[in-house]
């Protein structure tokens, strides 16, 4: 079991580092100067002009949403980092610890929150671009599989909770 | 719990110490203490058999049902 845990920890580290490097590269490629342009525009903009329809506002919203997507990707990576603490607990022999139960729930909620928020942001992005948003097509995207995965982690947390109770019962059986 | 463990009484009757009994039946003194204090959730037949054997008594001498 210990060997398996070490292998899993190494794989998790690999996935985490890979995801972080891809995210950092995407952020590096993202043109943050747009925000500066927007602040300059906001200072000199004609106040009588409708804000929502102005080109700069649309562009700014587009970049803000893109930045939001970066944030949620970072949040997902943060969720993945909980696997390391779970593996650490398992390695120490604490299979049904409170920490593990808490972390399974946390991973579940992070997965669900990520998917819901990314769906909302993608909807806003397509709305800004003027293209059509097909909800069911979006649901077919790979990232939406994180919703059942998140629910699975909630179920796993519940199973571990029962496991903990059974373990306690077993420990108090003389 | 409505099941009372009368192990202390039996130990006094037999003039035996907890540590001695724990050694004979092959459990730790900590576990025997859990059993004596009534904190145990269950008792194995094998443990009960060993206790009865060591104290030369019946299960009913050790366990008692008390209506709460």
How would you sum up the major sheet of chain B?
2 strands, antiparallel
The arrangement of helices and strands of chain A along the chain is HHHHHH
Helix content of chain B: 55-70%
* Spatial sequence of strands, sheet with the most strands of chain B: 1-2
Strand tally of chain B, please?
2
Q: Flag low-confidence runs of chain A.
A: none
Rounded Rg of chain B: 11 Å
The number of domains of chain A is 1
CATH class term of chain B: Mainly Alpha
Write the CATH homologous superfamily of chain B: lambda repressor-like DNA-binding domains
Shape descriptor of chain B: globular
Rough shape of chain A? Answer: elongated
CATH topology of chain B: 434 Repressor (Amino-terminal Domain)
What fraction strand of chain A?
under 5%
Structure description:
The complex is a heterodimer of chains A (174) and B (68). Chain A is mainly α and 174 residues long. Chain A has one domain (2-171). Chain A has helices spanning 2-29, 33-44, 55-91, 98-129, 135-139, 146-171. In chain A, α2 (33-44) runs antiparallel to α3 (55-91) and α4 (98-129) packs antiparallel against α6. The radius of gyration of chain A is 22 Å and the shape is elongated. Chain B is built from five helices and two strands, in the order βαααααβ. The longest helix of chain B is centred in the C-terminal third of the chain and has 11 residues, at 45-55. The mean pLDDT of chain B is 91. Chain A binds chain B through residues 168-169, 172-174, and chain B through 27, 31-32, 34-35, 39-44, 47.
Per-chain topology:
The complex is a heterodimer of chains A (174) and B (68).
Chain A (H helix, E strand, L loop, with lengths): L1 H28 L3 H12 L10 H37 L6 H32 L5 H5 L6 H26 L3
Chain B lengths: L2 E3 L1 H8 L3 H8 L3 H9 L7 H11 L3 H4 E3 L3
Antiparallel strand pairs in B: 1-2
